[in-house]
Predict the 3D structure of the following.
Amino acid sequence: MDFFFSLFMSGLTKGSIYALIALGYTMVYGIIALINFAHGEIYMIGAFIALIFTMHLSAPPVSMTGWTLLLTVAAIAAIYSGMYGWTVEKIAYQPLRGASRLAPLISAIGMSIFLQNYVQLVQTSNFLVFPDLIPQIELPLSWAKTLNRTNFIILIFTALSMATLTFFIKFTRMGMAMRAVAQDPTMAQLSGINLDRVISVTFIIGSVLAALGGLLIGCSIRQIDFYIGFLAGMKAFTAAVLGGIGSIPGAVIGALILGFAESFAAGYISSSYKDMVAFIILIIILTFRPGGIMGTTQTQKV
């Protein structure tokens, strides 16, 4: 039973990180009906920014430690990644807004490749050791067999991020503007909503969440490289499609299903097949429900 709960908590942790990345995909798709294939690289950049500033802030004369260091690094990584997300939108998407749907897709893939090579050149192509940023906390003894402090902090960070995003979307003016644009961009513009601003804010929010995911995965696996964004981005995109692309609750549900599938497949079958099992679940669900779990299948009239 302890082994089962250990796998359960591992899947919950993985799913939480996938959810942070998947939200960026689904939010951008909900606003402009396009996939940001450079989103995984923003996640990777967030992890590198966190590593760089951890090295500077933990050394003299600053010498930060504990919660102060973790929260400061998280805030800096979020700000920098938000700027990168805004830049990607301005370079890869805004100039092609009136073009065919294929043009921004190719542009986003090109931006993804550029960011990978950019980080490889200015940093390194080797794996880098990520420091342990998680403060020492005392967990109940009954939790110790299935939940460590790193996974606990990841779950807390993810829950707070989800709650903040939900509040922002439902109760702020910009959140209401984002929902209006997602429902009917033309009518939203006629109502006085600045479409460019809404799209930029959507990219920034998605990038901030991805940066937090990059920081948390670094704390979890304790190493990063320039390529970690590709596979994580593909899995998060799979989670978004699985839950229903464009649906925020669907992205979270899809990410959790993916995390549990990977964890239990690695524990009960083999770690070599964990990716295969996750994508098999995707194929099965999309075969019977093409719109995803919480998505809607739109019928196109001819």
